[in-house]
Amino acid sequence: MSQAKVPTWVNIALIPVLNIMLAFFVSGLVILAIGENPIEAAGYLIYGAFGYDEGIGYTLYYATNLIFTGLAVSVAFKGGLFNIGGEGQAYIGGLGVGLICLSLDHTMPLYVIAPLAVIGAAVFGAAWAYIPAYLQARRGSHIVITTIMFNFIASSLMVYLIVNWLKEDGRMAPNSRTFEESAWLPYLHELLSPIGIEIGDSPLNLAFIWALLCCVFVWGLIWHTRWGYQLRTLGTNPTAARYAGIDTAKVTIWAMLISGGLAGFVGLNEIMGVNHNLLLNFTAGYGFAGIAVALMGRNHPIGIILAAILFGALYQGGAELAFEIPTITPEIVVVIQGLVILFSGALEHMFKDRIEGFFIRRAVA
Amino acid sequence: ATEPAVVYDQAGKFDKSFNEGVYNGVKEYTAETGIQVREFEPKNEAQVEQGLRRLAKRGYSPIVTVGFNMTSAVEKVAKDFPEINFTIIDGVIDLPNVQSVVFKEYEGSFLVGALAAMASKTNTVSFVGGMDIPLIRKFACGYEQGVKYQSSNATVLQNMTGSTGAAFNDPTKGSELAKSQFSKGSDVVFAAAGGTGIGVYQAAKDEGKLAIGVDSNQNHVQPGTMLTSMVKRVDQAAYKTYKDAAAGTWKPGLVVLGLSDGGVDWALDDNNASLITADMKAKMKDIRAKIISGEIKVHDYMSDNTCNY
Amino acid sequence: MPYAIELRDISKRFGAVQANKDICLQVPAGTIHGIIGENGAGKSTLMSIIYGFYEADTGHIEVDGKRVDIRSSQDAINAGIGMVHQHFMLVENFSVLENVILGAEGGAVLKNGIGAARIELQRLAHEYSLDIDVDAIVEELPVGLQQRVEILKALYRGARILILDEPTGVLTPQEADHLFRILKALKDQGVTVLLITHKLREIMASTDNVSVMRQGEMVAHRETAHTSKEDLAELMVGKKVRLTVDKDEAQPSEVLLSAQNLSQFDSQGVKRLKNVSLELRAGEILGIAGVSGNGQSELLNVLSGITSMDEGEIHFAGQVITAKAPKDAAQMRDLKMAHVPEDRHKMGLVTGFEAYEAAVLGYHNSPVYNGKILMNRKVMLDECNERMAAWDVRPPNPHLKTANFSGGNQQKIVIAREVEQNPEVLLIGQPTRGVDIGAIENIHEQIVKLRDSGKAILLVSVELDEIMALSDRIIVMFDGAVVGELDAKDADERTLGLMMANAYNEEQEGVSA
Amino acid sequence: MFETLILMLDATMRVSTPLIFAALAGLYSERAGIVDIGLEGKILGSAFAAAAAAAVFGSAWIGLCFGILASVGLAMIHGFACITHRGDHIVSGVAINTIVAGLTVTLSMHWFGMGGQTPALVGDARFLDITFPFADAMESVPIIGQIYSNLLSGHNILVYLAFIMVPVTYWVIYKTRFGLRLRAVGENPHAVDTAGISVSFIRYRALIICGILCGLAGAYLSTAHNAGFLKDMSAGKGYMALAALIFGKWRPVPVLLACLLFGFLDAVAVRMQGVVIPGIGEVPVQAIEVLPYVLTVLLLAGFIGKAIGPKAIGRPYVKERA
Ligand SMILES: Nc1ncnc2c1ncn2[C@@H]1O[C@H](COP(=O)(O)OP(=O)(O)OP(=O)(O)O)[C@@H](O)[C@H]1O
Ligand SMILES: Nc1ncnc2c1ncn2[C@@H]1O[C@H](COP(=O)(O)OP(=O)(O)OP(=O)(O)O)[C@@H](O)[C@H]1O
Ligand SMILES: [Mg+2]
Ligand SMILES: [Mg+2]
């Protein structure tokens, strides 16, 4: 009688899809409520996101950020930690990237700067996650609250640094000088055109490839290494972790360091890939969106890639939609994002219990 | 036929101030010619360039872009689309297909400064700036000169709301700043702070003080409280771009608009008529003429990044 | 005369588990009625249904001959039913008074209710010798007094029917005796008592009638006077119970592990382990007897390295382990100490893992399971398959989630994991808790086999029968300290029971005086 | 100097008001065991609803009602997720914050077409300041008069209400049946359940109160302190209130003090832009802005006392053996 009673596809496909459908359905109602046609809106959205080269490029560019933050949330989550600090870690990660670029762009070529920038992003992002992690592991301060606080602290710190130290004299906008081209991550359309592949101009850059590599890295790390085994043990049963002789404080801290480092890579895409200078608020909520991505992607790299592309499409399609129907603001995407978090996160039991109950009853009968 | 377009900055076209000024110009043009202007309001940095490209690709021209924040994006896109005409307001780009429109805000600010000094009973007036950038210091400096010209022993209190873009959209802080200035004796406040100004004017109204609007004519925002507005005719900049383009007379290059060509001015209308005495009106007329004639030299903060006049 | 309480065909199902099935029960007023059954037999579920905590799927309840509709605990309270739960239901940082009035405050504002409650509690204390400081904070009270608060809560609400779910599990025999005296007094006042336990001694000593549950069903009703322990035991497990294990005389040799003066304090600063010393020899099983909560768990945790001691030292495998030079659980494993924890769900397994992953928990760093960077899944799977076959784990599917194995099979996975590491010392806590009789025999055999191969085993169990059947030597723990040691040959239930109550010496003195 | 202090404190009262409402809201919710990082969203939602309704109906009171309705509605979504469906409290809070951030802009764009703002509120559509009797006359009396007329007098009714809510909350939490049950439910819901009280019902009621108080906070922002709604106008106040709640260790009076401290820092920060303090130099405003968050982190780390919250907080209640 003790067989697995609920088929796997129910948990990894049926329930997530149902949750997303519900989120979209409610979003449709919102669009209807503001007097627009949801079907037409969906049409613009899908066309804008996937209908042409450039649109796809933008979709993937947004997805790049979301893959990083989604991975960040999920690595911490696997260890039972809720990292809401992705936003701040990404911000500070970007600072690391910016500082490296600003100090080396006159003297070094890209192939020297890029690896250093990767390290800079990871180290700075990780450093920002370290204090909440340390406090959680050694002093029992709740990581959710401390990471929220650290988002605010990061934001103030960045304003201070950029406005007082990094801003170019005489410049209006609070951002640093533009980097030399030796510190620009190449755009994919530039990389691909010499080998005969022409894709439309878009901000999609090398950071996207790095994001995919990070997925592979995270997948191997969590499911195929000892450390991942320890992390998952800690995340599902902390008492068993202590029983197994796992140094829970150390695993906690490392999980957050990796999480923060991953979030920091948003800086690669934004600072080095697209903006080419250090500016304020480039994280634009990607840290929070990462929570939705991780939840929807079931904390698995494949799922995260899919969810990130879905959200990337919403961002890009949403911009297109707002462009075509000015009464719909791009904020509708934020609403959809929130609804996804609500239905696939907070209300996960709503369908899950019923559907699983249905399959269990069927199995028992 | 031209297909005109406009890209606002991230504050959006209803910021009651700078963007809204441009929007008014757009409305005027549409009302007059019946030609719809394609509008775009980007929500983040990436969308600025994306929106510009999309407009350029679809052949919209001229494209009016609003604010110094767009300088680098416009520069990139204008290079890639040499056949499309761009006008950038408040920014300077040296390209053959870009017109750069900048204003002598210091002249207008001087005028309203003088008026503030005339209206003040406490001989203390104040200034609330938005984001602390040279452009806003330019307003402050002109204002201060105007006040001192009228009343050399007057006190001018100055505060900036913040050092980020958010400082242009923080009415709560604006109102707190204004209240603190009032408590130090100010009875006329000039806000060059975008959306933050709304809070400043509200505070002035609540405490029975006078306020001076900026960019658009904001006299209607709090009638009876608004002493005047330092109008910066961004609406005209936009309107003229479209008109000229339609007539084929649009030209690239730098356009500097000041008092003499009506680019900046002080606003007098029904909403503030009762606050302006005939005497004040006369004095203003006189000062205005003197600035235009060059008899009064107003120092431009941005010429040397100081306010030594 | 109608019954105080009567159950008719009560059934309750949790998902796939049929916890109660067509239960009928009649309890005459003013009696103490015992209900016995193995772990998981459905006793607590049934009582929770009477108390309105769960709603029955079918069936109904009559109180004093009248059918009552119990949908919530409030309904049960209104019907005069009170319950003392297996796990206390107290707000720990509230005072006794606040706990007692919670839910019976007597008005929207607390002031009046508190005054009235003070007076009523004084009366109850007087009547049933249930003295307590009503302003004390509950978490500062000893367990016995916390239980008293629970009883007071029920009586304060005017309970005429009192349910106690395994009340003595946390009590020393003396405290238990005191409790039974209180129950007797209540009975004399006409209160009907339902007493859940799986300790046959208590049933025989204090009840009027007894009902037996097995696998969710009520299988027998007896008058206590007309039954025996053996009879009840057989009814409980459904077949003749073999309470002994076949084993040869132990051949203890050298000391493998010795502990001296181990002490440990909990986070509140209470000393949970008091100067415990023991020696463990190769080829013997050392049993630790005691009422649960008397330091056994702490001892296991300290010996296995999960927590470190505050005082004392352990000598093991040539190492000296002290508070200053601690070794964690992983290091102890490296020294070839294995540990089957008392609670497999909370500690021994990760229920979300597939079986083959759970089967290496604690040994996951071993080079056997690891390549240079990645873990070697194939090795893990192969080994798991082998073990499942050898230990008859059902179903033998290494990819099944651990949670989906039954309790007994989960336990086999844990014990196999620890035993197959071929340890020098095996610490084993509650090896057969919640495991059915067939599996118990198997597990006992394996433990003896390990002993016979010259290993040392430390066995902790609250089941006296198990201790006596397996151990070669027995240590008794009380209140964190070792209070006695005897050879298994000299052990009997009475002696051990007295020792567990720390009353043995007193009695000996009494005899000699 | 004294005058400056009075004016600072006066500003502190204004700035603290939404924090006090929101932190007390959080207190009810968290004392009942429900973590509420959705304070932010509820404030924002209420600010929007209140401003929109006040603009349409021209009455601040009607605005307040709508603000409260919106906020209570959001609280009920939180309850539906966390109480009825045993969802994760944090995830639900994040969801609500996100939805509201998007929805307020979308709806105000649709209704008012002003780029995510509501029209500026005038006259009765706003809560106006109340001047105490003889305030003008008293102003010249040193100290007492100044305190009376400059600090105590001249706020709008919601400011006074916020301060009154503190003793009221104290009384409710510690002196009433509801308060006893509320605290019990946050410590050990099983105990409450077996005492014959519905855990869900208490938690829902706590969330309704939480919603009402957040509604007051939001309405204050848009119809009293300001004159209209602006996108993202809550600007982290919900999180700051959460920090104050922790800083005040979930007790009404210390929570009030924490709110006042944070409000005071805010009032100082407003006046610190570019101010040079002799001997120290120019203190970056960011350093002052960031203090509440830093203080909270230090408290959580146990460096300045210890923050121990209700025991059952954040854990969904399921009828299972512990
Ligand atoms: N809330 C619940 N959800 C799911 N299953 C449950 C629940 N409560 C009990 N069960 C299951 O119902 C069965 C009977 O459990 P119950 O607690 O009534 O046993 P018991 O006789 O009291 O055991 P013990 O002696 O260990 O206390 C067990 O299989 C248990 O796992
Ligand atoms: N924590 C749990 N989570 C999910 N399912 C469980 C859990 N505990 C038990 N089960 C399911 O309930 C079934 C019954 O478990 P239980 O432990 O009562 O089995 P049992 O009949 O007592 O078997 P055994 O004699 O081996 O102990 C198991 O087969 C398992 O599928
Ligand atoms: Mg039980
Ligand atoms: Mg079992």
Automatic annotation (TrEMBL), chain A:
<feature type="transmembrane region" description="Helical">
    <location>
        <begin position="112"/>
        <end position="131"/>
    </location>
</feature>
<feature type="transmembrane region" description="Helical">
    <location>
        <begin position="55"/>
        <end position="77"/>
    </location>
</feature>
<feature type="transmembrane region" description="Helical">
    <location>
        <begin position="304"/>
        <end position="326"/>
    </location>
</feature>
<dbReference type="GO" id="GO:0022857">
    <property type="term" value="F:transmembrane transporter activity"/>
</dbReference>
<keyword id="KW-1003">Cell membrane</keyword>
<feature type="transmembrane region" description="Helical">
    <location>
        <begin position="89"/>
        <end position="106"/>
    </location>
</feature>
<feature type="transmembrane region" description="Helical">
    <location>
        <begin position="332"/>
        <end position="351"/>
    </location>
</feature>
<feature type="transmembrane region" description="Helical">
    <location>
        <begin position="12"/>
        <end position="35"/>
    </location>
</feature>
<feature type="transmembrane region" description="Helical">
    <location>
        <begin position="251"/>
        <end position="272"/>
    </location>
</feature>
<keyword id="KW-1133">Transmembrane helix</keyword>
<keyword id="KW-0472">Membrane</keyword>
<feature type="transmembrane region" description="Helical">
    <location>
        <begin position="204"/>
        <end position="223"/>
    </location>
</feature>
<dbReference type="GO" id="GO:0005886">
    <property type="term" value="C:plasma membrane"/>
</dbReference>
<protein>
    <submittedName>
        <fullName>Nucleoside ABC transporter membrane protein</fullName>
    </submittedName>
</protein>
<feature type="transmembrane region" description="Helical">
    <location>
        <begin position="278"/>
        <end position="297"/>
    </location>
</feature>
UniProtKB/TrEMBL annotation, chain C:
<keyword id="KW-0067">ATP-binding</keyword>
<dbReference type="InterPro" id="IPR003439">
    <property type="entry name" value="ABC_transporter-like_ATP-bd"/>
</dbReference>
<keyword id="KW-1278">Translocase</keyword>
<keyword id="KW-0813">Transport</keyword>
<dbReference type="GO" id="GO:0016887">
    <property type="term" value="F:ATP hydrolysis activity"/>
</dbReference>
<dbReference type="InterPro" id="IPR017871">
    <property type="entry name" value="ABC_transporter-like_CS"/>
</dbReference>
<feature type="domain" description="ABC transporter">
    <location>
        <begin position="257"/>
        <end position="504"/>
    </location>
</feature>
<dbReference type="InterPro" id="IPR003593">
    <property type="entry name" value="AAA+_ATPase"/>
</dbReference>
<dbReference type="Pfam" id="PF00005">
    <property type="entry name" value="ABC_tran"/>
</dbReference>
<dbReference type="InterPro" id="IPR027417">
    <property type="entry name" value="P-loop_NTPase"/>
</dbReference>
<keyword id="KW-0472">Membrane</keyword>
<keyword id="KW-1003">Cell membrane</keyword>
<dbReference type="GO" id="GO:0005524">
    <property type="term" value="F:ATP binding"/>
</dbReference>
<dbReference type="InterPro" id="IPR050107">
    <property type="entry name" value="ABC_carbohydrate_import_ATPase"/>
</dbReference>
<keyword id="KW-0762">Sugar transport</keyword>
TrEMBL record, chain D:
<keyword id="KW-1003">Cell membrane</keyword>
<keyword id="KW-0472">Membrane</keyword>
<keyword id="KW-0812">Transmembrane</keyword>
<feature type="transmembrane region" description="Helical">
    <location>
        <begin position="89"/>
        <end position="112"/>
    </location>
</feature>
<feature type="transmembrane region" description="Helical">
    <location>
        <begin position="206"/>
        <end position="223"/>
    </location>
</feature>
<dbReference type="InterPro" id="IPR001851">
    <property type="entry name" value="ABC_transp_permease"/>
</dbReference>
<dbReference type="Pfam" id="PF02653">
    <property type="entry name" value="BPD_transp_2"/>
</dbReference>
<dbReference type="GO" id="GO:0022857">
    <property type="term" value="F:transmembrane transporter activity"/>
</dbReference>
<feature type="transmembrane region" description="Helical">
    <location>
        <begin position="157"/>
        <end position="174"/>
    </location>
</feature>
<protein>
    <submittedName>
        <fullName>Nucleoside ABC transporter membrane protein</fullName>
    </submittedName>
</protein>
<feature type="transmembrane region" description="Helical">
    <location>
        <begin position="48"/>
        <end position="77"/>
    </location>
</feature>
<dbReference type="GO" id="GO:0005886">
    <property type="term" value="C:plasma membrane"/>
</dbReference>
<keyword id="KW-1133">Transmembrane helix</keyword>
